[in-house]
Amino acid sequence: MATYVLVHGAWHGGWCWRLVADRLRRAGHQVFTPTLTGLGERAHLLTADTGLQTHVADVMGVLRSEDLRDVVLVGHSYAGFVVREVADRMPERIARLVLVDAWVGRDGESLRDRAPEFFLNWIDSVTKEGVIPVAPPATVGVVEPDQVAWLESSLTPHPHRTFSDPTRLSGAVDAIPCRAVLCTPGGPMPFPRFAKEFGWDTTELDVGHDAMVTAPEALAGILLEDA
């Protein structure tokens, strides 16, 4: 039995992994899907002061309180920054990392440092009082009516500070095996470049950015290869 910790990206919550988690559990594995502070069912905790370190502490707290070891730690999108820092601080608990269309950086870099200009321009144009409002589901590749309705009822605003806070890495994370799952119609987003830069094994999925919503069977199949 493997232990998976699946960490959602910006605007999402632990809810977004439901279909993937169900498949992993049916295969006999232990699965945790924490929701980061200020998002999902924890949206009432959102403040402009919620930063990257808060979210790193959220996930570290789950690993510590549940005494999880040999973890397959999975991060989607923004959570690439979260899970890499968690792994860097708790490498003895992590068996491998899986980064799904994920933002990543080196020590001292923030997501804003790694983002293309068009993305930053959009973020800056919509952010108000330190909070980024929800984007339409189509921007993450979700167009089926049932899936759109699920996202529209579940997505919540995201704290901007998490995008501007620098990550702090000692280098321990770079010794942990890592796979990058690339959602191929990603257009101008730099996720394939990140994987090449860090030298990670890659797997491509011909789906939009929110693969856990639109292709849970395929994504679960990839994650099961890392059990």
Automatic annotation (TrEMBL):
Gene Ontology molecular function terms on file: hydrolase activity
Top-level taxon in the UniProt lineage: Bacteria
Keyword Disulfide bond among record annotations: no
UniProt cross-references to Pfam families, sorted A to Z: Abhydrolase_6
Signal sequence extent: none
Membrane-spanning ranges: none
Keyword match Hydrolase: yes
InterPro entries named in the record: AB_hydrolase_1, AB_hydrolase_fold, Sec-Metab_Biosynth_Hydrolase
Keywords, in A-Z order: Hydrolase
Domain AB hydrolase-1: 5-220
Entry-linked PANTHER family: AB HYDROLASE-1 DOMAIN-CONTAINING PROTEIN-RELATED (PTHR37017), ESTERASE_LIPASE_THIOESTERASE DOMAIN-CONTAINING PROTEIN (PTHR37017:SF11)
Full protein name: Alpha/beta hydrolase family protein
Higher taxonomy: Bacteria, Bacillati, Actinomycetota, Actinomycetes, Propionibacteriales
